[in-house]
UniProtKB/TrEMBL annotation:
Residues 1-17 form the signal peptide. It comes from the Bacteria. It comes from Nannocystis pusilla. Keywords: Signal. PROSITE patterns: PROKAR_LIPOPROTEIN. This is Lipoprotein.
């Protein structure tokens, strides 16, 4: 039973990570006034932290999902 729970947790985390990256890309596109497909998004070693670059700009974002509602915010000074 335990291996099944571990596998389900891994799948849930990877699905959540995909949502976090998507919401980060969308927010950065709005902030940079740039097409989302022109941005490079790289996950950090810290879960939910992303480095975004494109259209001559770059920034660091923190993303989270709470009860299915995902959001990303640009971190100041990074």
């Amino acid at each position: 039973m335990r291996p099944v729970l571990v596998a389900l947790a891994a799948v849930a985390l990877s699905a959540c990570a995909g949502k976090l990256e998507k919401v980060t890309r969308t927010q950065a596109a709005a902030d940079f006034k740039c097409d989302a497909d022109k941005l490079k998004v790289r996950g950090d070693e810290v879960y939910g932290k992303y480095h975004v670059a494109g259209c001559g700009q770059k920034g660091v974002y923190s993303a989270q999902c709470l009860m299915g509602d995902c959001s990303a915010q640009r971190l100041q000074g990074e």
